[in-house]
Structure formats: structure tokens, C-alpha cells
């Protein structure tokens, strides 16, 4: 990143933190408090506590907690964790749903100097045990509902909600560690074993924040409803962005589309942070309920984590107005591109333009840039990319850019489109195709609520497409109906050979389809 880009990035962060007519002592106090804690979670929370000590930091199912209370609890818990082995360089896991305890635990781990490992609340026992072993997790802080699961994971110490709450009420607080711990976010594991992607708190984190803030108009003291799981990169990023902007973050342990609208309406929230499947569930509410809800305070619905889909983008804009911002990226590459409401209104399937300070190139098999409109492998470069997998395995790079794992193309306006995952490409009778195009088409069918398409082996063509369809409530559909719908709109070789009907698609907690769990067609 050039000096000019870095300055623009920091300017975006400064703009997002500007509050007109603010008491003049607040900013200096916040900067002084942050300077004592480096650049990570502790610095953000210390600054917010110094700037707005009595303001609500988190509103959850139990009520609200202020920035000062949150900061004090985090440092008290850090002292207790240090006494139990959370030394600098150790790994501490957090397996919590969205509530204040998650935030306190993250602050405490940062203040102890240990590495924070964000554990997926959807893990089964074998996955959890594998991750605990692979990441050398010594301590797990967890919700009570996961007690039986965590007891068998192999960690040396485990702390439930009551124990963690008691340890966070001490009168003594931890000081700054000599080492700033890493944040380890696990990949989704949709095609294999989850891998730990590590990040350190450094200038790159500010650059990544600036890239997003330059395109999405998040502001200081926002009220933001964060429904995306906090253990996921998207939810965790907005939790951190919220602390950095002294925003009030509204969370619930379990996502409920109707309750989410209630929170937006009751608290006059300006920002909603979701993954696409959550937006789909909100839009799936009864039209009468959607019509009676006052969501006029919403100026931003920020999405990431999986494909948005053109139909959903258009439907969301029609319902909520020009407030949809769709971010494309990954745990490894961070933010790659952002589609604004204007981009999505004109081109509903785009993932937008590269974020400020981010380089996105489409490379062919020869490593050179492909022509505009031609598809190729997507490579991304920015200051916020991850430090590497904790296993030591490297992610492919070309021209100092990281492979995203996706195939896509730029159009003549410079908008980026993702055509599909590299490993999803199907070669059928010598023709290369991506199932995502067929999925997108099926999702425009009025009688289809959800759909997934994959390639399966075939004796005659090598591979053919298989479609898995969830029929919309109150409708009926046959396999021939589905095939005829595709046949009249796409090339013959893109017509699914088999069509299976399911009650629902298997998905991760962040909404990605678990293709390896789809039944044999």
C-alpha cells in the first residue's frame, strides 16, 4: 500500500470516529488510553471506555453493559486467566454465542497476552477436539450449553458462564502484556477440516478497517445490530469496528428474524450486520409483518460470508431502500471488494469494486491478467491479509497477491463478479461451467425457496450437474419443471441431469451450503 493510500485509509478511520460538537477532552483521553495498550482489542476498548465510559457498549438478552464496565470486567478476568495458565503465547478458546460474555472474554484474552481462538458454536465433538489439539488450546471459555461438549475436547481448563462471570468481578486489573496476542479465526471447513488463520494487531488492521470504512459509511456512536456470529470473521470485524467507533452493539444469543426487526425498531438502529441467509429469513417473514415494521432508521445493511444472490439483493433494496452493502472477501484475504447500493441496483449479482487500497487481479493459468469480461482466478492484495495458517501451510500467492480460491471476471465498468469456487468448476462433455450460474437462475424461480447445484460423476459426459431444490411453501414443482426452466434460459449442457427435493439445505452457521453433506442424487 502506497503512502497516499495509507493516508486515505487512516482518514477514513478518522472520519468514522468524528462526532460534531463533542466535548473537547474526550478524544485526547481516548488516544492516551489507547496508547497504553497497543493496537488491538484492548486499545479499542480502553479508548471507548475513556471517551464514553457510561455509554452502552453492548445490549444483549440480559440488558446493557457500559464501556467502562466491559473494560473493567475484561481486565479483571485477564488477571484470573493469567493465574490459570493464560500466559503470553498460550492459546485460549472462546465458544460463546453472541452476548456480553463473548466480548469480555475476548478483551480478557487480549489483556493477558494470550492468543484468542474463536471456536465455531456449530462444532461437533470431533471437530472441536481436532481444533483444540491443532491450535494447542489450553483453556476454553464457553457457554453453559456447550459444557458436555467442551468437557471432552481435551483442553486443560474449561470455564463456564458462572465461573467466568465470577472471575471477571475482581477488584484488581491486569496491566499491559509485553506481547500482543494474535486473533485466530477458523476457516469455514465446508470442504474439509477447519484451519486456523492468524492475525496480529498492527497497522494492517487499521488499513483493512479504512478500506471498509471508506466505502461503507459507518459512523461513531452508531447503534448496530450484529446478528452475524461473533466467532465468524464478519461478525468479529464489526464487533471490533464498533468498539473502535464507540458504537452500541446489539446482539442476541440466537438469531430470530422477527426479534431482529424488533431490536432495529425499538433502538432505532442505524446499522444491521448479517450474513445473506439471515437476510433471506428476514425477507421470508409474512408480508404483513414486514409492512408494519418501522425500519426507517436503517441506513446500512452490511453483508458478507456467502453469496448474496441477485434476487435477494433486488428484493432487499425494494424492501429496505438503498442501504445494502455487500462485501466480498475471506478469512485469509480480508476485504477484497464492496458493492454499494447503487452498484447492486444496476447489477444485482456484482460484488462491487475493489475496496480503496486493495488490489484485485484476475489471472489466467499462465499467471497473466485475462481480458476484461473473461474469467480467471481471483487474487487479492491488501494490508489486512492474514499472517498465515497456524499449521504452517502456505496459501498460494502470485505477484505478491493471495489466491481467493474463487474464479471471476471484471466487466467493462470495473465491477467484479464471482463466477464460483475454483474447486466447484465442472467439466461436462468438454464444456467448463460453474454451478453458481445455475443456482442463481433457480433462485429467481418464484416457486423455489432455496437451491444448490453441484457437479457429479457421469459415465457419458465425465460430469453433469445435480440440483437440490427447496420448494417455496404452498407450491409444488417437479424435476421436469426445474429442468425445463433451465433449458429455456441456459445452454443445454447447463441443464441439471438430476433434481432432488429437500426440506432444507445443509448450511454452516454462517449460511454457506455444506456441499459435502448433500445426499447422493
Q: What is the CATH superfamily label of the largest domain? A: ANL, N-terminal domain
- Low-confidence spans: none
| CATH classification class of the largest domain | Alpha Beta
- The overall number of domains is 3
Largest sheet entry: 9 strands, mixed
Order of strands across the biggest sheet?
2-1-10-9-11-12-13-14-15
Number of strands: 26
- Helix/strand-derived category reads alpha/beta
Description of the molecule:
- The structure is a single chain.
- By secondary structure, the chain is of the alpha/beta class.
- The chain has three domains: 1-17 and 203-356 and 381-390, Rossmann fold (3-Layer(aba) Sandwich); 38-201, ANL, N-terminal domain (Rossmann fold), CATH 3.40.50; 423-517, 2-Layer Sandwich (GMP Synthetase, Chain A, domain 3), CATH 3.30.300.30.
- The chain has 17 helices and 26 strands.
- A nine-stranded mixed beta sheet has the order 2-1-10-9-11-12-13-14-15, sandwiched between helices.
- Helix 1 packs across helix 9 and helix 11 packs across helix 12 (276-283).
- It is globular, with a radius of gyration of 23 Å.
- The N and C termini lie far apart (48 Å).
- The model has no long low-confidence stretch (mean pLDDT 91).
Topology of helices and strands:
Layout (H helix, E strand, L loop, with lengths): L2 H14 L9 H10 L5 H11 L4 E5 L2 E4 H17 L7 E5 L4 H13 L2 E4 L6 H10 L2 E6 L4 H5 L5 E3 L1 H7 L15 E4 L9 E4 L3 H11 L9 E4 L6 H12 L3 E3 L6 H11 L3 E4 L1 H8 L3 H6 L7 E4 L6 H11 L3 E7 L3 E6 L1 H6 L6 E2 L4 E5 L12 E6 L6 E2 L7 E2 L2 E10 L5 E6 L4 E3 L2 E3 L1 H8 L5 E11 L3 E10 L7 H9 L10 E4 L20
Parallel strand pairs: 1-10, 3-4, 3-5, 4-7, 5-6, 9-10, 9-11, 11-12, 12-13, 25-26
Antiparallel strand pairs: 1-2, 7-8, 8-18, 13-14, 14-15, 16-17, 17-20, 19-20, 20-21, 22-23, 24-25
Helix pairs in contact: 1-9, 2-3, 3-4, 4-5, 11-12, 12-14
Amino acid at each position: 500500500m502506497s503512502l497516499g493510500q495509507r493516508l486515505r485509509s487512516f482518514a477514513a478511520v478518522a472520519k468514522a470516529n468524528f462526532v460534531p460538537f463533542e466535548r473537547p477532552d474526550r478524544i485526547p483521553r481516548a488516544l492516551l488510553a489507547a496508547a497504553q495498550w497497543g493496537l488491538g482489542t484492548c486499545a479499542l476498548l480502553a479508548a471507548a471506555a475513556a471517551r464514553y465510559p457510561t455509554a452502552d457498549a453492548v445490549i444483549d438478552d440480559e440488558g446493557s453493559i457500559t464501556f467502562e464496565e466491559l473494560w473493567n470486567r475484561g481486565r479483571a478476568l485477564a488477571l484470573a486467566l493469567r493465574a490459570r495458565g493464560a500466559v503470553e503465547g498460550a492459546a485460549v478458546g472462546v465458544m460463546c454465542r453472541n452476548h456480553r460474555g463473548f466480548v469480555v472474554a475476548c478483551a480478557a484474552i487480549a489483556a493477558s497476552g494470550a492468543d484468542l481462538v474463536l471456536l465455531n458454536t456449530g462444532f461437533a465433538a470431533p471437530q472441536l477436539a481436532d481444533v483444540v489439539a491443532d491450535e494447542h488450546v489450553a483453556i476454553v471459555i464457553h457457554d453453559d450449553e456447550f459444557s458436555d461438549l467442551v468437557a471432552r475436547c481435551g483442553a486443560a481448563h474449561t470455564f463456564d458462564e458462572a465461573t467466568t462471570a465470577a472471575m471477571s468481578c475482581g477488584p484488581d486489573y491486569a496491566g499491559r502484556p509485553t506481547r500482543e496476542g494474535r486473533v485466530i479465526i477458523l476457516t469455514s471447513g465446508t470442504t474439509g477440516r477447519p484451519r486456523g488463520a492468524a492475525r496480529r494487531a498492527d497497522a494492517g488492521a487499521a488499513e483493512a478497517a479504512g478500506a471498509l470504512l471508506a466505502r461503507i459509511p459507518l459512523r461513531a456512536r452508531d447503534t448496530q445490530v450484529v446478528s452475524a456470529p461473533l466467532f465468524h470473521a464478519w461478525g468479529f470485524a464489526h464487533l471490533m469496528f464498533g468498539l473502535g467507533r464507540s458504537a452500541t452493539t446489539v446482539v442476541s444469543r440466537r438469531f430470530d428474524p422477527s426479534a431482529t426487526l424488533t431490536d432495529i425498531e425499538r433502538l432505532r438502529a442505524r446499522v444491521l450486520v448479517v450474513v445473506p441467509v439471515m437476510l433471506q429469513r428476514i425477507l421470508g417473514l409474512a408480508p404483513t409483518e414486514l409492512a408494519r415494521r418501522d425500519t426507517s432508521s436503517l441506513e446500512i445493511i452490511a453483508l458478507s460470508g456467502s453469496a448474496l444472490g441477485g434476487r435477494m439483493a433486488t428484493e432487499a433494496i425494494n424492501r429496505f431502500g438503498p442501504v445494502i452493502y455487500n462485501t466480498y472477501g475471506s478469512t485469509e484475504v480480508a476485504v477484497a471488494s464492496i458493492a454499494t447500493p447503487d452498484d447492486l441496483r444496476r447489477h444485482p449479482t456484482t460484488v462491487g469494486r475493489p475496496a480503496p487500497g486493495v488490489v484485485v487481479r484476475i489471472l489466467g493459468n499462465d499467471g497473466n491478467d485475462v481480458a476484461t469480461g473473461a474469467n480467471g482466478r481471483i487474487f487479492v492484495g491488501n494490508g489486512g491479509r492474514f499472517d498465515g495458517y497456524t499449521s504452517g501451510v502456505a496459501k498460494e500467492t502470485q505477484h505478491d497477491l493471495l489466491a481467493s480460491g474463487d474464479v471471476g471476471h471484471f466487466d467493462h465498468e470495473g465491477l467484479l463478479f464471482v463466477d464460483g469456487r475454483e474447486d466447484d468448476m465442472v467439466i461436462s462433455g468438454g464444456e467448463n461451467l460453474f454451478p453458481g450460474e445455475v443456482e442463481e437462475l433457480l433462485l429467481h424461480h418464484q416457486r423455489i425457496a432455496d437451491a444448490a447445484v453441484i457437479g457429479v460423476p457421469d459415465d457419458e459426459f465425465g460430469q453433469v450437474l445435480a440440483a437440490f431444490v427447496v420448494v417455496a411453501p404452498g407450491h409444488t414443482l417437479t424435476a421436469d419443471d426445474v429442468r425445463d426452466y433451465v433449458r429455456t434460459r441456459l445452454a443445454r449442457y447447463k441443464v441439471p441431469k438430476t433434481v432432488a427435493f429437500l426440506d432444507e439445505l445443509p448450511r454452516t452457521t454462517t449460511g454457506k451450503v455444506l456441499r459435502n453433506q448433500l445426499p447422493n442424487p
